[in-house]
Here is the input.
Amino acid sequence: MNYKTERIFFYSLLFISFITVVCINISANATFDTGDGIQHYLIAHYSWKHPRLFLDMWGKPFFTLVSSPFMQFGMNGAIVFQALCAAGTSFFCYKIAQKINLDFAWSIPAYIFFSPIYFALINSGLTEIFFGFLFMFSVWLIFQNKFLWGAIAASFIPFVRPEAYVVLPLIALVLLIRKQFFSIPFLFFAFISYSVIGYFYYHDLFWVITQNYSITEVGYEGQKGEFLHFVKHYDEIWGTVYSALLILGICTSIYFIFSFLSKKSKTDFLPEILFLIFGSFFDCLLLHSLLYWMPDIFTNLGMLRYMTTLIPSASLISLMGINLIFFFLFKHYRYLKIMSVAIILWFIIQTPFQQSYYPFHLNSEQVVIKEAGGWINKTFSKVNRVCYLHPFLAVVSDIDPFDNKKSTLLWSLDKDSLNLLPDSTLIVWDSHYAPQEGNLPLDLLKKDTNFIPLKYYKYYLDFPAFESWIFMKNKNHDTSTHDSIAPELITDFGPIDNLREIDSETFNFDSNKPVDTSLLTNEKCVSGEMSLKYTTEKEFGPMFSKKINEIKNFSSLRMIQINFKFFSSDSTKEIIPVIEIKNGNKTIFWHGEKINGKMNDNTWNACEIKRILFPNELNEDFILNFYFWNKGRRNFYVDDLQLKYLGLK
Here is the structure.
């Protein structure tokens, strides 16, 4: 492929990739990450109002500086920023691929944008994507023989991500091999600059070290896993086809290592390929594998998002894998090569859309906190102070988390300081962050006579369900009403009270029976004369099916509720009620959950299951199924089965 044609292919694919991810993520109205990603966004967003945030080491000063103009436009601005970084990273990788004479360099954007984990992080305020951009920018400058500028650019990486501490030595090594001794000290350019600037705020010349949580804090204790944790999750990081190409590309490293050791090479960029591409990939992978596996050191909790840092290097290594394939195949069939690459890219591009996180939607924590934040905005136009810890609350309630006069994070409070809060202060307690990071148990607030419970929100599903309480500081009130506040159940579409029954079906197994009657029995029943008897002989019972367009007002359908009576003298373990949606033989949606709640043996128990159905999962030609999966081969009876279809009012 000639240079001009390749440029057209590259920029076309880059443009399509950029527009695709921006449109998908902005239209989602939900972010992939609700923890650190929100916090990084908030720091960058409010940095113009609170300039001290430009020197916040947790927020990563250089990331905050560069991203802050985009973050002023909300989370949509964050998405555009991440997509621009992905485009820039693709450009630098494309130029590097051309430098080392790799065919099909135009395909690079597919490896960057559509890596499953990278695709997800574009919809966040996290720092990993910008790390990859800045690192590849530095590497590209070095490939351009602009060693001094490459060193200066690389010096800012520690102010973006802690992985800098494993990639900077690799850059220094390449500069040493290239005998660019004058450039090496400039790897400290940003450190010296930030140290001097920050001195006037912290009055500490070494604030970069003393304020660096990665160095000074232990982090989460425990929560360790296996060394191959990230490798075993290859499908969620790269996808199957991408991973296969990556393995082939890694095989080529043997050739580069041999060439380096024997000092016989056909490329002018052997040190750069070996240390900056392969080296950065393995260093980042090894670093996070060790942090998750080794005891008694800082843990990264095994979060897959950290692998986003090595996606740019992985894209080049995978491209080497494709080149290795065509070194042996289709040597003289150019169009066959292009068709083969197109098929490979098609599989890669499809991968993120097959992940569990897609399509993006608010998770259980977000929908509950959104409801709590909306109530605060509506009820309190002015509040003396809000104390909270869940990052998403600051997004949905317009709380300035860095205004010390208006907001306080719960982890800075103990029992004594809670009592010192002024009257009318709101306390927003959540069941995730408040008891863990904040070390604030719910009972402490419920039993304290200084706090009035105003609202109690709870997600309608999950066990235990995420919940949030809103208290107001008011001395010496009656605490007898604390436990009388009923929870407001929240679904993905707001309060459950917003849903109404639009259709229903009842199976008493006498007059109304399933198509499969093989399990009908008259041994035990609640009403009528028949029930279903499940035994150790069969793993599956009858299927209760309904075509979507047979449900009244199906366009408003948002939830299915199943009620049934359950009788067993056996364990309920591995008895799984299943809800699924199918399009022919293809499963669109599958949800199985254990029978929760205390079951009394040898008596009939009333059970209820609810599940949200998202519009994208519903098509008038799809089939909605319900059945019991007797996975543990238990003996039990089911009677009076009712399927209720709930829709928006």
Summary: The chain is about 40% helix and 15% strand. The chain has three domains: 3-354, 364-492, 498-648. Residues 498-648 form a domain with the Jelly Rolls fold (CATH 2.60.120.260). The first strand starts at residue 386 and ends at 388.
